[in-house]
Amino acid sequence: MVKNILITGASGLIGTRLTTLLHEKGYRIAHLSRTTRSGNAQTFLWNVDKNQLDPAAIQPAHAIIHLAGAGVADKPWTKERKNEIISSRTLSTRLLYDELKKGNHQVRTFISASGIGYYGSDDSENFFTENDKTGDDFLADVVRRWEEAADQIAELGIRVVKIRIGVVLSEKGGALQEIMRPVKFYAGAPLGSGKQYVSWIHLDDLCNLFIKTLEDETLQGVYNAVAPHPVTNKELTYAIAKALNKPLIIPAVPSFVLKLLLGEMADLVLKGAKVSGQKIQSAGFRFKFEHIQDALKDLLVK
């Protein structure tokens, strides 16, 4: 039987590619969106702020992939924006929980996006694993609350998987585009010390990891979505420059400059963590892009 998959946040970088790959595998895809314009899938409406959700979205679904959430790097971290980042994740999950609790559905699996921001930051050479405790900064708090909201759905007897996503690399947007832009114009440089770790993952590997957790019903709980070989910010910057055949002639950007420009948001690029993807590998998942050079060759060298 072809399974029906409902995706929230489907218009984003991950959701767009994931929809395509699921279509190719024969799944029926529906989107839960704030607008009726949601790409190549049937679209149902919801409004998290008004606590509104079309119940017709839930009824035919066998699984829900929950990607919705305000972008953490889209706007400055004002008090209002921080509240929006948290509420867009927790309230949307709660809205889905409330609808699932009614019982008029056949949902067996709930897969929630999460983030490696859970671990906070650490410049050591030690790998974080899924068993480690949460960090103590803003992003760690966001992820902790996000996952707690998802855990409530497990109480309904639904299999819940939480995927802690690293820095997603794609030629169509996201972090790679932001790093590439100055490199292309001979203004690229490591940020801060350059020693902070970037635990990354190629977009296609990430989407296939979602599909793995969707299809393998033995999997539940939390999994890190990061390639096996993280790199430092300096290593990533130099690898991108090499892939683009551009020199790096600018010295590293001092931390204080980034803090002046970005405020607390500077933590996104000045801090990092070395995160392990071994758990999902032990569950049988195979990364196509294990090394940064292979990922960048696929994304940038045409």
Strand arrangement within the widest β-sheet reads: 4-3-2-1-5-6-7-12
Poorly predicted runs of 5 or more residues: none
Averaged pLDDT, please?
A: 93
Kindly provide the name of the CATH class of the domain at 4-168 and 200-225.
Alpha Beta
Can you tell me the CATH architecture of the domain at 4-168 and 200-225? 3-Layer(aba) Sandwich
Number of strands: 13
Q: Main β-sheet: number of strands, strand sense, barrel status? A: 8 strands, mixed
Share of residues in strands: 15-25%
CATH names the topology of the domain at 4-168 and 200-225 as Rossmann fold
Structural class: alpha/beta
Radius of gyration: 19 Å
Q: What order do the helices and strands follow?
A: EHEEEEHEHEEEHEEHEEHHHHH
Distance from first to last alpha carbon: 38 Å
> What share of the residues lie within helices?
25-40%
Structure description:
The chain is α/β, with parallel strands linked by helices. The mean pLDDT is 93. It has an eight-stranded mixed beta sheet, with helices on both faces. The protein has helices at 13-24, 79-101, 138-154, 175-184, 203-215, 233-244, 255-262, 267-270, 278-282, 292-300, and strands at residues 4-8, 28-33, 42-47, 52-53, 63-66, 109-115, 159-165, 167-170, 173-174, 197-198, 200-202, 221-225, 231-232. A hairpin with a 4-residue loop joins strand 3 and strand 4. The chain is globular. Helix 1 packs across helix 5, helix 4 packs across helix 6 (233-244) and helix 6 (233-244) packs parallel to helix 10. The chain has a domain at 4-168 and 200-225: Rossmann fold (3-Layer(aba) Sandwich). The longest helix is centred in the N-terminal third of the chain and has 23 residues, at 79-101. The protein is built from ten helices and 13 strands.
